[in-house]
Amino acid sequence: MADTYDLIVIGAGPGGYVAAIRAGQLGLKVACVEANDKLGGVCNLVGCIPTKAMLESAKYARKVGHLEEFGITVGEVKLDIAAASKRAKKVAESGSKGVNFLFRKNKVELITGWARLQGKGKVEVETKDGKKTLTTKNIILATGSRPKSLPVLKIDGDRVWSSDQAVYADKVPATLGIIGAGAIGMEFADVFDSFGAKVTIIEAMDQVLPLEDRDCAAVVEKAYRKRGIEIYTGARMEKADVKKNGVTLSVKTKDGETKSLEFERVLMAVGRAPIIEDIGLEKAGVKTDRGAIVVDEYCRTNVEGIYAIGDCGRPPLLAHKASHEGIATVEFIAGVGHGGIDYGNIPSVTYCHPEVASVGLTEAKAREKGLDIEVGSFPWSANGRARTAGESDGFVKIIRDKKYSEIIGAHIVGPNASELIAELVLGRHLETTAEEIEKAIHPHPTLSEAVAEAALGSLGRPIHI
Predict the structure, then answer these.
(1) According to the CATH classification, is domain 160-270 in 3.90.580.10?
(2) What does pTM read for this prediction?
(3) 239-270: pLDDT as tens digits
(4) I need a surface site. Which of 4, 30, 115, 339 has the fewest CB within 10 A?
(5) Is 464 a catalytic residue?
(6) Is 413 left (phi over 0), alpha (psi -120 to 50) or beta?
(7) CATH number of 4-146+273-343
(8) What is Dmax (Cα atoms) for the chain?
(9) What is the pLDDT of residues 70-124, one digit of tens each?
């Protein structure tokens, strides 16, 4: 019964590999099937991890011009994006090796190949040595997602990049057009601007970072424009001409003017699409809707014993959401009990400069729902630690419900937003009130004090503004 398992996980990204490890911890006989010869999925190989490594390099590239303010004088500075890309790849490879180690530690069998469902409890894997059929009690689909193109402009990997090509660029294009001002577009705008490209961002919605709080988005847009990044919001791309030495885009602006924009390279950052093709969904009878696998609150599909987690199922398409679903689903399968997934308390982060992080409702959404709210906002310019770091743009915003004083939304734009949001995620999970956050003593001088001050602001009594 060598090819019989308690669980087969298809995909070794942040959802799949975490699910497989948790299954191993619980004593299940588990196999993880991965088409790539390196583990970690898009997140580790070409997404979250190497992108953040590039952003770290971009931070130093950007700061070097301001070191004299801190009493440091440097000589001639040379920016080398190829070296930064090499470092990013090394960081990604380290993460991939780490997943391999964790698989061995937790007795997860790794099978390299393309998996297809063959009906109830059966998975066919096409490996380099041929096909073999595996039998299992449960299957978790964690196949991830791929970059989207637009009808008028397709990703070709040469003149028109996806994030896959942008993350390991070996040279900086003189001009870069970025289609889409979501997290991916704004992060790569930061990277390439920092390394010397002339960057232009084109966004169809009326603000950058369309899913974020409008006030946070405005801070980022202002910072980017100050850096010389050109931004068109409320703009529609009408035509594209990909030539041997560049790309010409015809863009209709929100004022109705049609502009012809020339770029050496274009980055397509209009979102990602679930990978659900050629994995046997039709043969197994698994339902899909609008290009994604249909699941319930326990990540169950309509077919008994088949689950779907991460990007191939419900949104949002975030690595930490996929990992959490992996743990919760495996514990549900094992009968351990988990308590479910709170989809209303998933944090979102954009790691550009300034950083943006949020959880819960935006102020606009809360008002749209007719909630009786109080909003507290505390600027970084009034925080001592932010001023010492020279990072005083932005704020912390907390939205509380007046009746119970529970935090229904929190938004941070500025230094270390990605780390600070965790306090508010935990607070919301524990149904913390604004008063409780304020009463918890925050160390001084720290950025975290701004969280307490924003809580005080939502109560109408901030101290330092």
Answers:
(1) no
(2) 0.95
(3) 999 999 999 999 999 999 999 999 999 999 99
(4) 339
(5) no
(6) beta
(7) 3.50.50.60
(8) 69
(9) 999 999 999 999 999 999 999 999 999 999 999 999 999 999 999 999 988 999 9
